[in-house]
Specification:
By secondary structure, this protein is α/β, with parallel strands linked by helices. Helices cover 44% and strands 11% of the residues. It has a 5-stranded parallel beta sheet with strand order 2-3-1-4-5, with helices on both faces. The radius of gyration is 23 Å and the shape is globular.
């Protein structure tokens, strides 16, 4: 299967209907061995691109992962980013906000964790939780203690979308490339993965009763995701809807998108001007004077 970035990208201004987006796509691999070889190739390419990214020091790259429970976010991050130098990459997972975080605007806590130029930041869940889980469970807003006049539900979510889009455009205009992934899992596949977490002892720790409670809100979450993807997929920071029922294929799709996006940045190593070249030649001359076989002066 030939990979096409646009097959997974939500076009700016389009209205998303997730029932028309597949949760299972034709695989990019022919066998488990073929998958491993393809992923290894992509991981190697990403490792080289990360080194170039760090050396050029022109952009910051932010990867955002959103999905329903058991969609495979952790596994995708682990496998796709396995060849990345940890010194140049940070992963943040945003859980329930702390008391301090609730005293600030909804974008504050994630803004503290944005990547620097030359680095890769990964958000495993993000500020998008504020228009997803909070929209499904609006009672969460009570903890944010917003002024009553700002809680008009007729305009509230559109205002939050606008805040997010403004932030992402601002980041783009200041050198941060944002790539957003929604891992699109079917309700049946989630059920099978939950069963596996119960039946396999080494996966028991992954399961909680809260997962089952949230599953009851599946239709509401799909509506929230549709509204979110429609409102916030922009040219500067597009959403990619990744079919997630096949974990291996999802990882290959994500790795292809990340690698292609890095390549599109047109990065290059810093050029060495004549002055710098002369400095390096002078240093080289000093180093060669101390090469093996040369006589050295010993203290008497």
């Amino acid at each position: 299967m030939k990979f096409k970035l646009e097959d997974f990208q939500v076009k700016e201004g389009s209205k998303v209907n997730l029932t028309k987006w597949p949760t299972l796509a034709k695989p990019l691999y022919e066998s488990k061995h073929d998958y491993e070889e393809l992923l290894a190739k992509q991981v190697s390419a990403l490792s080289e691109l990360q080194q170039l990214h760090y050396a050029s020091n022109r952009y910051a790259v932010l990867l955002i992962f959103q999905a329903m429970d058991a969609a495979g976010k952790d596994g995708a991050i682990k496998h796709v980013m396995s060849g990345v130098n940890p010194q140049g990459c940070q992963v943040f997972s945003f859980k329930h906000p702390s008391a301090q975080e609730l005293e600030h605007d909804f974008l504050w806590r994630t803004t503290q964790s944005l990547p620097e130029r030359g680095r890769i930041g990964i958000f495993n869940r993000s500020y998008y939780e504020e228009v997803l889980i909070v929209r499904v469970h609006p009672e969460i807003l009570q903890a944010q203690r917003l002024p009553e006049e700002l809680q008009n539900m007729d305009t509230f979510w559109q205002e939050r979308y606008r805040s997010i889009v403004n932030l992402e455009n601002h980041l783009h205009n200041n050198g941060t490339k944002i790539i957003k992934f929604f891992l699109h899992l079917s309700e049946e596949e989630q059920r099978q993965r939950f069963l596996a977490r119960i039946d396999e002892p080494d996966k028991n720790w992954k399961f909680s009763e809260a997962d089952i409670e949230e599953r009851k809100f599946w239709p509401q979450y799909m509506q929230a995701y549709e509204a979110c993807l429609s409102a916030t997929s922009i040219q500067a920071a597009p959403w990619y809807v990744v079919p997630a029922d096949d974990k291996l294929n999802a990882r290959l799709i994500i790795s292809n998108i990340v690698v292609e996006t890095f390549k599109s940045l047109g990065m290059h190593y810093p050029e060495t001007d004549d002055k710098r070249r002369q400095e390096l030649l002078a240093i080289r001359k000093q180093l060669m004077q101390g090469a093996p076989g040369k006589k050295s002066t010993k203290a008497k």
